[in-house]
Design goal:
It is built from eight helices and 19 strands. With 408 residues, the protein is of the alpha+beta class. It folds into two domains: 3-160 and 283-349, Antithrombin, subunit I, domain 2 (Antithrombin, Chain I, domain 2); 161-282 and 354-389, Roll (Alpha-1-antitrypsin, domain 1).
């Protein structure tokens, strides 16, 4: 994966997170699923639409298609990650052969004009490419003058297991916005203090916990100071996790409370090794994004003007972006992490205390109020998913009567 491509995708992720993560609702987004589609559109665009897409991409439009193919090829080689693209068009829509040849291999299909039949086809592709995590293609298929003539889509699915699983237990939160709620809490300890770090951003310190996966992808939990906007916390977290901003590991941080949710003490111990204890709630986050709500961010202002055609390199028929949406999901649990996103661009016509011999460093980090998360490819530092957690997984008492009856 080229460092230059990784850098521009990560910058798009940070800009998107800054505007999408906020308020009292959690969310998850995948810029790595949007960027290649923008690149393929830029390859076939002209005029103002081409210039705006190139600016959003961070690279010249003439380089975009090749960079997108290289990125998708590299993603397909990451263990535990599935990457796919698909293209469906009306049979009577002429497509430029050169543009088609520059697309990566993937699904090719025909839109019949029957919304029910076409939705069934598109939804089946989304389900199959995400192992059932996403059930529908995020696209509307209106009839009449706004009829969709082409759909360009991507799907990314990530599954990983933790190298060191968490212990799961029910716990009633005793402080913060989740106080009094029974939650599924995850806990574990390690002697690797520097799994937790603190970075300093424009709004103060941010604590990052790196949770190592078994596929070359890690998840970083990110906690900022109370009251700091989620987008600011995540932007600092992305920079730190991708090494664009310096951070300091817990082994070098001062004793005290050097970061949000983090305490460091010197404690009695029966072992000479330092230790880090982690406590975080499990979570599941789902989100639907209408990219045209932030058309400028994605370079889609001119491209979505249906009063004209903007993509002569795709088709001799006038085309404009009629819709651009992403459906995404992320789950963090005791054994691992799952994330999936389907992105679709639809083109319409233009118009205890033992005896202790040692004193050691003990770091404890708790995620006890809304926090962010990042899934990052360890080698390239590409950010695969970004999200914000406001509603952790609630704990529900098991159905004892059901267990006794069915022996479960």
């Amino acid at each position: 994966m080229k460092n230059s491509t990784v850098g521009v995708v990560n910058r798009l992720a940070a800009r998107w997170a800054a505007v999408a993560c906020g308020g009292d609702r959690g969310t998850v987004l995948t810029a790595a699923g949007v960027w290649p589609l923008l690149a393929f559109l830029a390859d076939g665009a002209a005029g103002t639409a081409r210039a705006e897409l190139a600016e959003a991409l961070g690279i010249p439009a003439e380089e975009a298609s090749g960079a997108a193919r290289e990125l998708l090829g590299a993603l397909a080689g990451v263990r535990g990650l599935r990457a796919a693209t698909g293209l469906w068009s009306r049979a009577d829509l002429p497509l430029d052969p050169a543009w088609l040849a520059r697309l990566p291999e993937g699904a090719r299909g025909t839109l019949t004009g029957n919304p029910d039949a076409d939705h069934k086809t598109l939804d089946a592709w989304a389900v199959e490419r995400t192992d059932g995590l996403i059930g529908r293609m995020p696209v509307k298929l209106p009839q009449g003058p706004d009829e969709i003539r082409l759909v360009l889509a991507s799907a990314l699915t990530l599954r990983l297991k933790w190298i060191q699983p968490f212990q799961e237990f029910p716990h009633q939160a005793d402080e913060g916005p989740w106080a009094g709620r029974d939650l599924v809490m995850l806990h574990r300890t390690t002697s690797l203090l520097d799994r937790v770090k603190v970075a300093h951003g424009p709004a103060g310190p941010v604590t990052l916990l790196e949770v190592v996966g078994d596929t070359g992808v890690d998840v970083h939990l990110v906690l900022g100071e109370p009251g700091v906007p989620p987008g600011v916390v995540l932007s600092t977290g992305i920079q730190a996790a991708t090494r664009a901003r310096p951070s300091t590991g817990a082994s070098l941080l001062p004793v005290g409370d050097p970061g949000p949710g983090l305490t460091i003490r010197t404690v009695p111990s029966e072992s000479p090794r330092p230790w880090l204890s982690v406590s975080t709630p499990a979570f599941e986050v789902r989100a639907e994004h209408n990219l045209l709500d932030q058309a400028q961010l994605f370079g889609l202002e001119a491209a979505s003007d249906t009063g004209a055609g903007h993509f002569p390199g795709i088709s001799s028929a006038p085309l404009a972006v009629g819709s651009a949406r992403q459906t995404a999901l992320a789950r963090f649990h005791a054994r691992g992490f799952e994330a999936a996103a389907v992105t679709a661009f639809a083109m319409a016509a233009g118009a205890g205390q033992p005896r202790c011999r040692y004193r050691v460093r003990h770091a404890a980090v708790r995620f006890h109020r809304p926090f962010g998360f990042l899934a990052v490819h360890r080698t390239s530092r590409l950010v695969l998913a970004v999200g914000w957690v406001t509603e952790p997984t609630p704990y529900e008492e098991p159905d004892r009567e059901h267990e006794e009856k069915y022996g479960e």
